[in-house]
Design goal:
The structure holds three protein chains of three kinds.
Chain A: H1 2-15, H2 27-52, H3 54-65, H4 70-75, H5 84-91, H6 95-125, H7 131-138, H8 146-156, H9 163-171, H10 185-210, H11 214-222, H12 227-238, H13 240-256, H14 259-265, H15 276-284, H16 292-322
Chain B: H1 3-27, E1 39-43, H2 53-64, E2 69-73, H3 76-88, E3 95-99, H4 100-108, H5 115-118, H6 127-130, E4 134-135, E5 138-139, E6 142-143, E7 149-154, H7 155-161, H8 171-183, E8 187-190, H9 197-209, H10 220-235, H11 247-255, E9 259-265, H12 269-272, E10 279-282, E11 299-302, H13 312-322, H14 325-335, H15 342-349, H16 352-363, H17 376-391, H18 397-410
Parallel strand pairs in B: 1-2, 1-3, 8-9
Antiparallel strand pairs in B: 3-11, 4-5, 6-11, 7-9, 7-10
Helix pairs in contact in B: 2-13, 9-10, 9-17, 15-16, 17-18
Chain C: H1 5-33, H2 55-63, H3 65-96, H4 101-111, H5 116-130, H6 136-159, H7 164-172, H8 177-188, H9 190-206, H10 209-215, H11 223-226, H12 238-273
Helix pairs in contact in C: 1-12, 2-12, 3-6, 3-9, 4-6, 5-10, 6-9, 6-10, 7-8, 9-12
Classes of the chains: A mainly alpha, B alpha/beta, C mainly alpha.
Amino acid sequence: MPSTTQTSTTARDKGGAAPTAPPRSHPSRRRRPDRWLAWGFLAPVTVYLIAFYAYPLYRNVELSLRAYTVRSFVQGGAPFAGLDNYRTVLTDPAFGPTLTHTVVFTAASLAFQFTIGMALALFFHQHFPLSRTLRALILVPWLLPLIVSASTWSWLLNSDSGLVNAALGVVGIDGVNWLTSPGWSLTSVIIANVWIGIPFNLVVLYSGLQAIPTEMYEASALDGASGWQRFWGITFPLLRPVSLITLLLGLIYTLKVFDIIWIMTKGGPTGSSATLATWSYRLGFGNLLPEFGPGAAIGNLLIVLALIAGLVYIRIDRRQHLR
Amino acid sequence: MTGPSRRRRLAAVAVIALAVAAGSACSSSADDPTDGGAYLVWDPYPQFADDSEWVALLKKCGTSAGVTVERTGYDTTDLTNKALLAAQQGNSPDVLIVDNPVISTLAEAGALTTTDDNKLDVSAMEKNLLGAGQSEGKTYGVPIGANTLALYYNKDLLTAAGVDPAAIKDWTSLNAALSTVKAKGKKGITFSAIGTEEGSFQFLPWFWGSGAQLTSLDSPQAVSALALWADWLKQGYAPNSVINNTQTTSWQEFATGNYAFAENGTWQLANAEKLGFSYGTIAIPASAGGPAPAPTGGEFVSIPVQKNTGRYDKSQQIVACLTSADNLLTTDTTLSYVAPVAAVQDRQAADPKLKVWVEAVRAAKGRTGDNLGTKYPKISESLWTAVQSALSGGKSPQEALRAAQAAASTR
Amino acid sequence: MTTSPSRAWWKTGVGLVLTGLMLFPVYWMINVSFTRDQDMRATPPHLIPINGTLDGYRAVLDQQLPYLGTSFLVGLGTVALTVALAAPAGYALAKLRPPGGSALSFVLLIAQMIPGIIMAMGFYAIYLTLGVLNTLPGLILADTTLAVPFAVLIFTAFMSGIPDELLQAAVVDGAGRLRTFWSVVLPVSRNSIVTVSLFAFLWSWSDFIFASTLAGGGDHQPITLGIYHYIGNNNQQWNAIMATAVVASIPAAVLLILAQRYVSMGVTAGAVKD
């Protein structure tokens, strides 16, 4: 234990410093074995990825390239259809609106989740009585199965017997048809999704904050920097790698969200809260007669969106390492 | 130079970990359905635990066929996917109980045996109920019980408002009753218009009651049915929440005692006894009078295709036992369903509370009947979409149904 | 950074309000779990369960407790396997930066985009062939796929913040890469291990799709499947559903609080000293 504390204090002393290039004392001697060793560390995960992700990924691509019916899904022998399923999806009149909903849903969810999560992380980073317990309690929503948390939200937002409208009524504002009017349904599912995403952002950003050495703040406090200046001058730059990964993961999880929307509105009324993910689910699994092909095609389009986001991330990340 | 040996050790550890995970798991699984052993039954009744009467009946039927039965209850929406997946992998259960519109999908997939293969005797079953399990002259399953929709009413509330439920014979008299109730400051009617099969199921009595056909969604009759619902929301006879209500939510609304009517099903009978007020039921009226044909609900028992066709014999005995007259009465009493066999229906109709329901079931129609089969899912999706867009004010009933007909006929 | 006690308590007050706001839907769930059917859709809604009922809890305590044990085992197994797989990978990607490393990170990103239901279908086919359907290790292995890509990326992000000098020093002391990893990198990364474990646990705790596809028929069912006892074909017993969620989250919440206390006490011990 003492030795651990020792090392972590050492780490803390230097943790914030921008990563500097290691002194290359023996470049030729260390390079090659390191490379092999690195893959030794990566071997378990690589084996794992191939064993468990390759087949589903292949399956999703294959489903989207063949003209599957329920019969050929069970019996096999679906004819190869090239990009027909993609064409069907892209030319569907629902594609445009659904894509817009996906972008709005993702952007709004990310912006609010991240900002609120960051604010809460900063707040709880100050040590005050009960801070740890309260922070742990904020995680409780994550313990609930989505069917429960999403149903609770539709309960609260119900037009007639929902608490939100009752509260608005007390203040003298007319109730809103949160889930049943095409104009509000998307907002409602965004609210619920932001709520679900806050704990994730809070926890990851909070552990990022913990890695920032307190000395950095003490030094700037001596300089007389205000809290706001300290945040933009120290916290935010040092939190950049963690913020970036939080946003990237948040983006991926938000693109993928379908259950919460499905439980609250089924993507309706009339598709007004449908995203690509709920559309894909509806086609493949939410109907009496599944259409696996177009469903998988939409799923793959989502993967492409995530790919683009990943490329952007790697660019930013690389620039950071070069600095 | 410790690098390489460490690397090897690390790799070995990884491989062992995976092997242990797989190996220890292997040893503990023994129930492969294709080689003798227990007969697997899947049902959509997760609410029945292992100590319930239903499971006891399954075990008993297994014993009398000389085999052991292993039963799993799945959530109903989950069961369709699960059944397709199992069929794809050649791992279907021996007996599968599913919601009736799913039968045509599974039959289309080639996952179910017909009565020609499995030698089930279905002659006792009522024709209007059996229809949902038939396609192109072949029968893919047996109904285990039927349910349908009717209007529950709050007797206390109607008495106070001075409305006589017996006088409600057509849409005009129903509208008059709703307007009287509304004028007394109470709420009229609640139902479920959610964007799923449930929404179509609830809309169909009105749709058929107008004289419309599923083959022509935009007929003037169909428009009049949708206009009826849309108008109820506009007049405030029905709450806006119906657009997102499941049948359970709508029942909870009725249970508050503030609603005069609720469109709901046979399965609520047990809960109806727990209401804080006295209730009654009437048939859903057709536009021009008389009871409207309601859709049949309820599950079918089927025998999925197996690699080992020798298993059908025992499966058939189990199913025959489940659907024998006495057992049907027990099962359908626990489920609050109406039996699919005339003789048992007569015994149920002796109970005055069930009489309305037995009559309603006799007048009911299968959704996938009329040889619609696997065309029904697409039609139904177009229909509930139209209902949703008309009720949420996006489109007029006419426009909504025209779009629905176009969507249903393109694919 | 010492604050006066009164100021600190004022912050506790704000913290309580914020937590209260965040947990309001959870309160609502508890409220519904005590509500009778006839009051569930009362207008206006009852803020507290007047005329409450314990029916929901009676049903749950009769039927659900065994499922909790399964959920715990699956959660702990998922945490252990996730950390074991992801921590070395994160270290390699962050510090050893092997060729092809960023391609691997990329694959990890993509891996998370495969819809859960497709993953579950894949596992079903694999498990059926191996005969591992309805087993605990099978479910644990499947649940780790929810957390492993996340874990590797998080470890990479956090471990790249470890100063190279520290690792270099260990190497100079004669430690190999494996020793360095074990006795320097892992202890310093306690924070990220906690974060990863937390999410691995939470994800496996609330997983439904793998549980239903891979363990639906067996003796090892987690609590999420228990909820489906109250979702019948036509009818849902909402007070029992919510009661299950309450009963399921209490022990896990206590565990979370204790774990956080224990771990962050260890971490901050160093910080408070200086």
